[in-house]
Amino acid sequence: MNISYNWLKNYIDTNTSPEDLSLILTDIGLEVELLETVQQIKGGLEGLVVGEVKTCEQHPNADKLKLTTVDIGAEALLHIVCGAPNVRMGLKVIVAPVGTTCFPTTGEPFKITKSKIRGEVSEGMLCGEDEIGLGSSHAGLVELADSAVVGSLVKDYYELTDDYKYEIGLTPNRADAASHLGVARDIAAYFRTAYSTADVSAFQEGDASGVKVQVTDPTNAPRYSGVTIEGIQVAESPAWLKDRLNTIGVRPINNIVDVTNYILHDLGQPLHAFDADRIAGNQIVVRKASEGESFVTLDGEERKLSSEDLVIADVEKPMCIAGVFGGQYAGVSTSTNKIFLESAYFNAVSVRKTSKRHGIKTDSSFRFERGTDPNMPVYALKKAALLILEVAGGKIASPVTDFYPNPVSPFVFEVRYSRVQRLIGKDIPSEEIKAIILALGIGISNEQDDTITVSVPAYKVDVTREVDVIEEVLRIYGYNNIELKPQIKSSLNTTEKPDKEVVLNQVADLLIGNGYQEILNNSLTKTAFLENEANAVRLLNPLSSDLDVMRQNLLFSALTSVSYNQKRKSPNAKYFEYGKTYFKSETGYVENQNLAICIAGNQIDEHWSLGGKKSNFYHIKAAVDTIVRRLNISGVQVVESDNSYFDYGLSYMKGQKVLVTFGCVSAENLAKADVDGKVFFATFDWDLVLKVIRKNTIKYQEVSKFPAVRRDLALLVDDAVTFEQLKMVAIKSERKLLKDVRIFDVYKGEKLPEGKKSYALSFVLQDEEKTLNDKQIDAIIKKLMLNFEKEIGATVR
């Protein structure tokens, strides 16, 4: 939102500099993102002076040039060559001395230098309108009044004053500040002073019938006001009005439209002017559109309306989408001489939905969808009508129509001084609190001890509770005036445990430290990559067939990255990605957070001493195990994966849920993504990971002073037996002294029975309190052997 400094001074009498006011606005919640100087005329006529032509003679070497001497109040006259047809002795002119930069109406700026023109010295330039940005005329020199003072500045002659534009980052809740009046109210509250508004007592209603109004949807149009003005002349706006609009970046169009735009930015009240002669039946009907009803907006685009859209229509067709955009049919044109001027209060939700439905964002919808002042329409209508009479002539032909069956009441509730002080964290005197509340335009009644009853104006749409008033008080009192105490006695920490971002960064650092690269892929993908089309979240208006659904897995995102790099001679991949997957369910939409790891090509780049080592299943398993250990996740159950992603793989279960699944990606899936070679992939259910580690506790244990002992066993087992099963039996058999179980050899061969294999396991035993003796060690190994035989059917070799 753009605000003009000079415009604000219409409301507030202050000598505060634009720079200081910028800081004040930011302090009270209207953050100034940019402060920019705006000149009425580009270049501000800087360096130009008033001169008088003392002599004017024919140039000896050019028929169309004159030699002049010009007095600019300096010690010596300037010799200037001029070709303007109206140059003559005694003329008061605009002079650009040597060194002045001129900003023409069209083209680039240029600097005046001392030169020779057809052999004669020229020490400056006598200026026409177009040469200095005053206008577009090139007919001759600008002729100043005889009263112009020689040597004075041209910018003073034209009474040019710089303005300053504030770009304010208005938060959505501050609908009350979406205008110069709204900003001025806040400044007045800060200075504890009054602000002034324009007197509209000169408005006199006409006695003609004017355009009739019928409102059939009072829910979405709670207030609708209008007046008929006739005898106007549509033309270019006066300079002051164009300057005001140009300062805030609004392009002037004509005097009628410019007045409506002026009032919108002045009071925050959108207006609309209709050509009254084009209103069929001489009647305005505020109604819901018919489903599919056709309407051509001001930009020339034909739109199909929804039955939920509120329109301003005549008895035949829509003329405007209420609060959003006008139509071509009844718009003001150069032939218009009679208008119906509309000023309304529309339902914010209705306007917001319509604006979003049609993809239209305007200055009008910006304000209506946040909430305008229901008590402003008639005042704004009168102020606008008086301005139209001033800039376009005409007369007010009809009384003011004001449909307002259910006036909006102020918000009334109680506020406690003690509550204000406690939430702000400072013992602000109750009189100071009361003064700020009153300065904000909030009424006070029924003051009893610690409690007051406040009456908040309807234009403060976000101030409906005690805590909202407290926020308003703090905003004006100043956040910077709340001192930090040297000691904080208590604090409230609402951070979710564990901190998701901290865990994410820890695992990311771990993977990066192990040579992985993080990738980030589009959440949009193509139908061919879906697991289940019935659960797909599809786009209503997809950009292409390759981006028509939300992804259901991260596998194809990773494979797409692998394929892209393979085609560019970079086949080795160690990737990871944090990302969401999306599904449609019977109750709505579901999104899940995942961590994916992908390995392809060589695990180790080719090197003269090592050669290239191809990635395999155990590399992806090592990455998964490293993360599980880092997060201190215990008690996982290992099962073979039946996931359709893989030719073979494993899943780590936590209870009945899959924590992570990983394996070798199937050839079918690789072909879908056009990937060569083998790819190993893992995907974590990151939401489940965070849930599991929430219960983790950190335990510290001193490093044992006593030695560890290793014993090995070779076991003959069935082919179906896994190492994980053996490990679980070992841990269950000796929980206290058994510290680690590892497999260091697997053998299947001719000397073994059919359907059998040999596992060689190592067991590490250690007592934290004493050195183990052979008797204890042998007893533990014997117990392990018996349990392996009993529960697994293993035979010790």
CATH architecture field of the largest domain: 2-Layer Sandwich
Portion in strands? 25-35%
- Calculate the terminal CA-CA distance, rounded to whole Å: 84 Å
Name of the CATH superfamily of the largest domain: Bira Bifunctional Protein, Domain 2
Strand order of the largest sheet: 28-31-32-38-37-36-35
Report the mean per-residue pLDDT as an integer. 91
Quickly count the helices.
20
Largest sheet: 7 strands, mixed
- Low-pLDDT parts are none
Apparent shape: elongated
The CATH class of the largest domain = Alpha Beta
According to DSSP, the number of beta strands is 42
SSE-based structural type: alpha+beta
- Count of domains: 6
What is shown here, in short?
The protein is of the alpha+beta class and 797 residues long. A hairpin with an 8-residue loop joins strand 33 and strand 34.
Which key terms come to mind for this protein?
25% helix, alpha+beta, seven-stranded mixed β-sheet, Phenylalanyl-tRNA Synthetase, Chain B, domain 3, elongated, Phenylalanyl-tRNA Synthetase, Chain B, domain 1, 797 residues
Describe the structure.
The protein is an alpha+beta fold and 797 residues long. The chain has six domains: 2-40 and 162-191, Phenylalanyl-tRNA Synthetase, Chain B, domain 1; 49-157, Nucleic acid-binding proteins (OB fold (Dihydrolipoamide Acetyltransferase, E2P)), CATH 2.40.50.140; 212-403, Phenylalanyl-trna Synthetase, Chain B, domain 3 (Phenylalanyl-tRNA Synthetase, Chain B, domain 3), CATH 3.50.40; 411-481, 2-Layer Sandwich (Phenylalanyl-tRNA Synthetase, Chain B, domain 1); 500-693, Bira Bifunctional Protein, Domain 2 (BirA Bifunctional Protein, domain 2, 2-Layer Sandwich), CATH 3.30.930.10; 709-796, Ferrodoxin-fold anticodon-binding domain (Alpha-Beta Plaits, 2-Layer Sandwich). Helices cover 25% and strands 28% of the residues. The chain is built from 20 helices and 42 strands. A seven-stranded mixed β-sheet has the order 28-31-32-38-37-36-35, sandwiched between helices. A five-stranded antiparallel β-sheet has the order 5-4-3-6-11. The chain has a five-stranded mixed β-sheet with strand order 13-16-19-20-21. The chain is elongated. The model has no long low-confidence stretch (mean pLDDT 91).
